[in-house]
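Here is an idea for our session: we take a single protein and study its fold together. To get us started, please write out a protein record for me. Start from the sequence, derive the backbone structure tokens from it, and show both lines together. Go ahead whenever you are ready, and we will take it from there:
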Amino acid sequence: MCRLEPDQSIIDFLMAMPLDPCKPTIEVLGPDRYHEVLGSSPQLSAADLAHFDKQESLCVVAYEAGQIVASVWFTHGEVYVSDLGRTVHVPAHERYSGRAYVHPDFRGQMLMQHLGHAHRKLQPGMRMWNLVYASNSNVLAALNKIELNLTGRFSTTFILGMRFAKDEEFDPQPLSSVSTI
């Protein structure tokens, strides 16, 4: 999996941009309200909520007519990444962004930008990153358009039931300049 994060100048630019008004209501949910998100995303399970509860996570959501139509999780500490089958350490000054989802009827309304903006206001200056499969060419192409940097790779290999983890972090490389992810 690829570790991707925006350059600070892009974050500063996006935070300074005035956003068009957001019709859905944006809220930040803490552990006492995690249960509200369950069922709003096909990518989210009760087990995920239990992991998020242990990780000091926040969930930023968009509500429309009382229903959650978009959500994204921000967390740190020993973060369980189900796609890797293990935890990844995220330092206190960083946030791992994951399990983002927008209902198909609400795509194209820049809801993720609104959700990210709400998180930045709440926790300014946090270094934020996420993991994307290197084989997910559609997502990588979209992320290349917003000029994210490749800052690491994470993998897990299982051999005879034994887990071998490999984590690499390196200086930011513009996604557009990397020939092999």
